[in-house]
Amino acid sequence: MRTETPPLIRLEEYRPSDYLIDRVDLDIRLDPHATRIDATLALRPNPAGIPDAPLNLDGDDLHLVSVALDGAALAADVYTASPAGLSLLAPPQKPFTLRLVTEVDPTANTKLMGLYRSSGVYCTQCEADGFRRITYFLDRPDVMAVYTTRIEADRAEVPVLLGNGNLIESGPIGDDRHFAVWHDPHPKPAYLFALVGGRLGKAETRFTTMEGRPVTCAVYVEPGKEPRADYALDAVIRSMAWDETAFGRPYDLDVFNVVAVSDFNMGAMENKGLNIFNDKYVLASPETATDGDYAAIEAIIAHEYFHNWSGNRVTCRDWFQLCLKEGLTVFRDQEFSSDMRSRPVHRIAEVRGLRARQFPEDAGPLRHPVRPRAYAEINNFYTATVYDKGAEIVRMLRTLIGAQAFRAGMDRYFADNDGRAATVEDFLSAFATVSGRDLTAFARWYERPGTPRLSISGHYDPQGARYTLRLAQSLPDADGQEGPPLVIPVALGLVGASGPLTDATCAPVRDGVFVLDRPEAEIAFEGVTEEPVPSVLRDFSAPVRLDLGLTDAQRMRLLAHDSDPFNRWQAAQDVALRLILEPDARRMEAFAEALGRFLDGEALADPAFAALVLALPSEGEAADALPADVDPDAIHRARRDLRSFLGQSLRPRFKRIDAALVPVAGAPYSPDSASAGRRSLRNAALDLLAAGDPEAGAQRAAERLADATNMTDRLAALATLALIPGETREAALADFAARYADEPLVLDKWFAIQAQIPEAGTLERIRRLQAHPAFTLTNPNRVRALIGSFAFGNPTQFARADGAGFSCVVKTVAALDSTNPQVAARLLTAFGSWRRLEKSRAAKAAEMLNGIKAIPGLSRDSADILARTLGGG
Ligand code: B3K
Ligand code: ZN
Prior knowledge:
Blueprint: E1 9-10, E2 19-29, E3 35-45, E4 55-58, E5 63-69, E6 72-73, E7 79-82, E8 85-88, E9 96-104, E10 114-118, E11 121-125, E12 145-154, E13 160-163, E14 166-173, E15 177-188, E16 195-198, E17 201-208, E18 214-221, H1 230-247, E19 255-261, E20 268-269, E21 274-278, H2 291-306, E22 315-316, H3 322-340, H4 343-362, E23 374-375, H5 384-401, H6 403-417, E24 421-422, H7 424-435, H8 444-447, E25 453-461, E26 466-474, E27 488-496, E28 499-500, E29 513-516, E30 520-526, E31 533-536, E32 545-548, H9 552-561, H10 565-581, H11 585-602, H12 607-614, H13 619-625, H14 632-649, H15 651-660, H16 673-692, H17 694-707, H18 711-722, H19 727-739, H20 744-755, H21 762-770, H22 780-793, H23 795-798, H24 804-816, H25 821-828, H26 839-853, H27 860-871
Parallel strand pairs: 2-12, 18-19, 19-21, 22-24, 25-32
Antiparallel strand pairs: 1-23, 2-3, 3-9, 4-8, 5-6, 5-9, 7-8, 10-11, 11-16, 12-15, 13-16, 14-15, 17-18, 20-21, 25-26, 26-30, 27-28, 27-29, 27-31
Zinc ion (ZN) binds at residues 303, 307, 326, 329.
């Protein structure tokens, strides 16, 4: 059997469901191997559907025990049932109930979709289509029901029973068993259903909403780890307060529960009132979590909480509208984090993420519009494009119509669509209504794949004191033809020799923003008394690639004098990127001098920002900037040489920074962004010093490792040391493993650091690590830590010229595909840029990919990624 290209589901074929489900009553008896689900569904024909149509319920790997219609067992000739579905051939054309009893084995569920067990804890994951692995259902987001869930279990094995909504009843059954009944009054699609049962400890607090509703908030974790839940719990409270102030959105149940589990396919899930999290994004202590982990926990707690309105109260009509909840919710969590931390620093981090993940996706065979038009496997569309470019579209919308109209539009969207399953059109129409704008052309951002190019050239006329900018946009379609223009908000300004030229005026530029809605435009600034440097796309006002042919000197003027922090950072990045792609000794020296001046001037005033300026563009970003024939080794060498040069020539500065930022002895660790910023600058200095002088660097990093009082500094030192081959490194790695042998999340970091070492020996190291007793394919975090970090974070070794790196990843995909296809398919996306590699590497990649094609019974998840990766241009 050869892998077939899976069939496509298309947006244009959307039809309302022929039947609706108003109420779902579940009675679930938890058992490790035979959990019984007794489901009563209150159904009725949908007036918007086709009358007399058969009722086709979805199923996936289900075992049917019994089925009854309005209380009577069904005759065998009126329905068909299989593990993949149940159909009633002639259902009643009036409201009716269907009672379905199914049985599932949560322990055998390795896909981690539907009901499964993670370290003995029962939990569920239903998005996108996991509910059909629990009972037969109309498993589509536009079928919304009110759920009541009774859960029963052995009291000793499963002391905690959690469901969606509010707890309405609970109690013992005999000596050994107990039950809990949860009722969720808010109609919801099946993908938001959840239950949890297990032995869990909790951290708990109360919050009173702006409407005066008292809410009990709890974070449930493995017993003994309760103190590590405090930061997540605090983030819950801050998220609740922020959504009230920033968007006027209060919480709407009496309880809000978060549960951390250790086997989870992604980051977290926004089930109504019962968010389930990968424990990586909940558990934090200074000894085990880095500043980055704290920031991610805060962001993801916020993200899932914000879904309560953007996703749950207003959900998606179909999965094509996924960006409606994901893009919007990413935008909301970004705003939250920006308010909690430094806004410019956070914006830079967002854009780095977008460029690292979304730009390459948009330039490769897996590219798709933010609202895809067709999919074979929806779980493969939880992508950087849907999430991060989706968020950029919302951000552009706010820039275009202004913050006030944006807020009014959001209010309108929530009011008009509350309790409904909405579309992108519903979203845009709310903003069109409140702003009076026609957003038809703007909507093209949702439809057109690819990253637009924005080319800018400037001309200065000293006599007329006029500066003219020509802007042109380009985004060819698949056939190479230029498509209809996008609406691009371009934030810009002019910068003189000693600062922004505030007297220059340009009529079409309002509030610092020019809206480019044609293929090209020319704008003129008047009153320009000196030759300026244009600062374009301030704050990264649109997700485009910018061609702005500035000289290094002009860019260094922006670094020194622009009022926009984003473009100050961008200017240094642009110079560094060019130095990686076209190394040049003289320009390197000039860059080091400019960086030196920058560091002398203000490194210590905003350490987090300074650390970002020192973080050179990644190897991936350099590869992404090349048209084709990417040689990862050449990029790596050039970047290493640049780092080494900067480390040597700025050595006294880095030593000063290092000394100035020594933590106060005995001061307790705090994850706040100012403290984190100081650590990040000091660790960046350490890293560049080591790049300049590896021998001394290894020594210094080993000392830092020994002195570190928190995981941030310890891991940074280990990462620095990991780049310097030798005994010191190996000893440090061994120490680290011994010290954290009982800390799975820290061991993940240990696996990940080693997987990213850019040396030929890494593949052999990975083989050894695969045989390490702590390595397992059943835990997604572990697989991502070792194999994911290698595939996505080690460009030279993954794309080794001999193909052995590709082979290692492909073998893992093959080994994992039948047990956990979602994680396997995600690993496979590491091949997304294979066509852009130089020819011999590309040939190896193609050979490996074609090899997987022959695997019998390859999952739809992997087959879909494979077909698109090999097929698309
Ligand atoms: N909505 C979930 C992601 C579900 C992924 C399904 N394959 C988490 C989030 O984005 O908030
Ligand atoms: Zn989300």
